[in-house]
């Protein structure tokens, strides 16, 4: 595997390697999401189902993948149980297509896919890199990293897999008074428009406070506030993103996805274990098809915003199926020496997110 690094500007990072871009994507873009609906394959809801044992999983050996950050490399950092690796998502009325890395690359030949969002986007990005590396271990893969952008180019296929680290999708600008979260501003759209597949995500950082809050003020329209209701701020920012898609994205060329809320597991009462305050001793999924604690409010906000959009956007509705996987987090096995019940081990749950993305791209 060939790797290199570049210091080129963010606006030019994705043209370092010549990529032939077609004007028509794999299939006609999916319909705009209707209120409360879920993306479906045929008549089967891919997102309704349960986790089943499958000895053919995981889809790759984490020890063989050079792309896993230490945050997600649970086996390397001492996780001794392997139960969490051997589960497959089984929709109730059909089968989820098994990820085929070579077919994925052929479908995207000459195209660029970008994940845009917080560290949960990084989680699915690293997962996809591992899935593809496992399928074509001898491929020439060129790596470019610049500020908030990372790119892997699979040169034989002329495929770019990219990540734009963007906590809120909307802008955080440094101004004389401090860092300002601007709920009505998006400046990164020019780069997003170059992509053939976009997978957006945001939620994890919207309730951060104190030292973990990466902004000092929030601006809504012309009003600058020290703080405001965080769910209202999240909703306003999503409306700004939705307006960008509706007015700027060329969905005749680009498939647009929104990655649903990825859950954390710190409250045992949500899965009928009162007194449990983290995922450290969880080694098995929740049985059944529904998470006892119910869906997070942020999921309802996302559905509401997507239902009002003009352009077609597909929801990767990962929330409920991921809620069932209280066993899938790193815990203390993450190379960072702190409890993590928010992100996911690799190999693991994000590989299923990519299987769902793969299925949607075939629709």
TrEMBL record:
Give the way it sits in the membrane.
Single-pass membrane protein
Q: Which GO terms describe its molecular function?
A: O-acetyltransferase activity
Q: Identify the stretch annotated as signal peptide in this record.
A: 1-32
Decide whether keyword Transmembrane is in the record.
Answer: yes
* Domain Trichome birefringence-like N-terminal residue range list: 43-95
Q: Which domain of life is it from?
A: Eukaryota
Where in the cell?
Membrane
Q: Which InterPro entries match?
A: TBL, TBL_C, TBL_N
Sorted keywords for this record are: Membrane, Signal, Signal-anchor, Transmembrane, Transmembrane helix
What would be one Gene Ontology cellular-component term for the protein? Golgi apparatus
Domain Trichome birefringence-like C-terminal, by residue range, is 96-359
- Family as reported in the entry's similarity comment: Belongs to the PC-esterase family. TBL subfamily.
Q: What is this protein called?
A: Trichome birefringence-like N-terminal domain-containing protein
């Amino acid at each position: 595997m060939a790797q290199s690094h570049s210091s080129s500007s963010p606006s030019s990072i994705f043209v370092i390697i010549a990529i032939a871009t077609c004007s028509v994507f794999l299939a006609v873009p999916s319909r705009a999401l209707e209120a409360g609906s879920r993306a479906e394959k045929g008549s089967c809801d891919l997102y309704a189902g349960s986790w089943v044992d499958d000895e053919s999983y995981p889809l790759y050996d984490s020890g063989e993948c050079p792309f896993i950050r230490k945050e997600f490399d649970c086996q390397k950092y001492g996780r001794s149980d392997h139960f969490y690796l051997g589960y497959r998502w089984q929709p109730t009325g059909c089968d989820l297509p098994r990820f085929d890395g070579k077919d994925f690359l052929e479908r995207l030949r000459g195209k660029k896919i970008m994940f845009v969002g917080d560290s949960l986007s990084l989680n699915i990005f690293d997962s996809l890199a591992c899935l593809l590396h496992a399928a074509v271990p001898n491929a020439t893969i060129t790596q470019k990293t610049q500020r908030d952008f990372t790119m892997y180019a699979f040169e034989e296929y002329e495929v770019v897999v990219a990540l734009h680290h963007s906590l809120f999708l909307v802008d955080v600008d440094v101004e004389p008074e401090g860092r300002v979260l601007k709920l009505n501003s998006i400046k990164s759209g020019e780069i997003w428009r170059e992509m053939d597949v976009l997978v957006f995500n945001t939620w994890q950082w919207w309730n951060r406070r104190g030292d973990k809050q990466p902004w000092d003020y929030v601006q809504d329209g012309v009003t600058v506030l020290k703080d405001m209701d965080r769910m209202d701020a999240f909703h306003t920012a999503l409306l700004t993103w939705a307006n960008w898609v509706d007015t700027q994205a060329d969905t005749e060329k680009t498939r647009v996805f929104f990655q649903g809320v990825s859950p954390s597991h710190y409250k045992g009462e949500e899965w009928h274990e009162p007194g449990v305050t983290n995922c450290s001793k969880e080694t098995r999924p929740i049985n059944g098809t529904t998470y006892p604690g119910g869906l997070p409010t942020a999921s309802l906000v996302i559905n509401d915003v997507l239902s009002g959009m003009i352009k077609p956007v597909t929801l990767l509705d990962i929330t409920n199926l991921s809620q069932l996987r209280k066993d899938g987090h790193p815990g203390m096995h993450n190379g960072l020496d702190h409890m993590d019940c928010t992100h996911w081990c690799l190999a693991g749950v994000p590989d299923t997110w990519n299987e769902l993305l793969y299925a949607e791209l075939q629709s």
